[in-house]
Amino acid sequence: MGSYCELYIGRYHVDSFKGHVPSQLAIIFRDTDLVVSQVPYQDYYSDPPEDCDDDYATRYELVMSLNCAKDRLNLLGFTERAVRQQFLDGIEEALQEQNELRELREGVMDDYHESEFHTLQQLQQYGFDGWRRAISALIADCFVSNRSNITDEAYSKTLSPPYSVFFERRDTFLGFPVAEIGMFLRAVIEDIPSEINVILDITELIGGGYYLPDDHICSGTVEDALSETRQFDKILILTEGKSDSRIFERTLRILYPHLCEYFSFMDFGPSKTEGGAPALVSTIKSFAAAGINNKIVALFDNDAAGVEHWKYISSTRLPSNIKPLVLPYNRLASNYPTVGPQGEVEVDINGKAASTELYLGESVLRNANNQLIPVQWGSWNHKTLVYQGAISEKGEIQDRFDAAMDSIESKKTQASDFDFTGLRSIFEMIFTEVATM
To answer: How many domains does the chain divide into?
Structure first.
């Protein structure tokens, strides 16, 4: 008979998967999503299992919030724009197949294909937004009415067109024309109540011996699939130096813990040498020549040297999986104290001296006198026609940042107490670019 894992959005049952967690779900859920609870054994068994205690059995679920699901799906390329286009293209292709079949049979169609053709026409007429409104209403209704055992067929009988049409295509996810669970999930979670979670119930699989309770189910499944498709590869972040990599990695772990396992940062090893923009260009070229399939994001500082080398490497032919970026516009840097031949002047240092340290928040950029640590102007950059500048006391700034992160990670302070504005802007840029690669 076998054991199954069950996928739910809130209380709505989406699908069942026999004997394993499919890789398409293992890449969306993470092992850290596991929630273990005690429930009445009747929820899963007709007779008490051997480990049942006081009429209760152990339930194992992978649970993620809608925001978490949306962030992960976006990273994997399942964006709002992509799923909308997939819906439209899928309907168009299915209708084309039906028309070709109709011509082949000289207009004589059996009842099944006539019904399929009619359903596809209605789906095309009501469009992606109409389809999503219907599905969102179904999921919300299940959640609000506390009905977990509702079936598509029973529910569809209570509906009038156009909504009932969406339940007639039995071989699809509620009429969604592409058989990709990630696409379906991303399409429907946009408009449902935020308190609803996406749940993968793996209780039966563990009870049936397919997995052990302490197995790394998701990461193990993904590791097995890594060689098959780039979708399962980690996203590589290349930076100008090891301090940048350390800063970004710590920030990701604190601000976006649910996305950590999707990224890998360049390891500079024990070397004390900071790479710089020229070294980053060389690394990008090496990765491109090696034919590495991972999505790769290369981050250049928002200073004169960084902009110069970013412009150069962006003008070369790179594989579509490699994206060079300059750190985004920094509001604080738009009027920042500097020291140079003209004395102490506050100027816009975006594109001239805004290194990673300028994105670490004012609290670490201010000295003991509560003054912003100035940028020291250096040499003239003949390519970008601006002076190159560098923040003073770079080491002290990094130390203060590390101390602040230590405090957050040890729960002495909250992440909300620290100014992550600049670092958030960097990651928002990365997430946006990765979603389109």
So the answer is: 2
Residue 354, beta-bridge partner list: 302
Shared domain for 213 and 326, answered yes or no, is no
Q: Do 16 and 221 contact (CB within 8 A), yes or no?
A: no
Q: Which of 202, 232, 262 is the last residue of a domain?
A: 232
C-alpha–C-alpha distance, residues 294 and 315, integer Å: 21
**Whole-prediction pTM:** 0.70
Q: Name every residue whose Cβ is closer than 8 Å to that of residue 266 and which is 6 or more positions away in sequence.
A: 236, 237, 238, 239, 245, 283
Q: Please write the tens of the pLDDT for every residue from 339-349.
A: 887 788 889 99
36: enclosing H helix or E strand: strand 34-40
pLDDT digit string (tens) for 67-126? 999 999 999 889 999 999 998 898 888 888 877 777 776 666 666 667 677 777 878 888
DSSP structural state of residue 295: -
CB-based contact 288:322 (threshold 8 Å) = yes
Q: Verify that 214 and 259 share a domain, yes or no.
A: no
Long-range Cβ contact pairs of 13-22 (< 8 A, separation 24 or more): 13/148, 13/149, 14/173, 14/181, 14/184, 14/185, 15/173, 15/181, 19/205, 19/210, 20/205, 20/210, 20/221, 21/200, 21/202, 21/205, 21/211, 21/217, 21/218, 21/221, 22/181, 22/221
Do 18 and 144 fall into the same domain? yes
Q: Which domain holds residue 93?
A: 1-232
| 263 and 173 in a common domain | no
CA angle 206, 208, 209 (to 5 degrees): 65
Closest CA to 35 of 58, 69, 11, 12: 58
Distance of CA 41 to the CA centre of its chain: 35
225 in the same domain as 352: no
Q: CA 34, CA 361: separation in Å to the nearest integer? A: 34
